[in-house]
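On clarity, I found the account of how folds are encoded harder to follow than it need be. What matters is that the chain and its backbone geometry are given together, residue for residue. The format is easy to grasp once an entry is in front of the reader. For illustration, here is how one protein appears when written out as sequence plus structure tokens.
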Amino acid sequence: MECNVGMTEQKLRVLAGLALVGVGAFYNSKPVAALGIIPILTGMLRWCPLNAVVGYNGCHDKGKAYGR
């Protein structure tokens, strides 16, 4: 898996996921909290299957995997 999520997008995904988990916990809504796991994982892995299907690559170093 090559990186297709940029650093800024990674941070936004993790923050959005944490916000969804927080909202789900506050309102005692397990589906909303579980939905927050998806952006957290895609942000941590820096790979998104939807980006791969669409052909979008947010990484600046397209030849390097995971920004290394």
User: Anything to note?
Assistant: The mean pLDDT is 90. Residues 7-26 form the longest helix (20 residues).
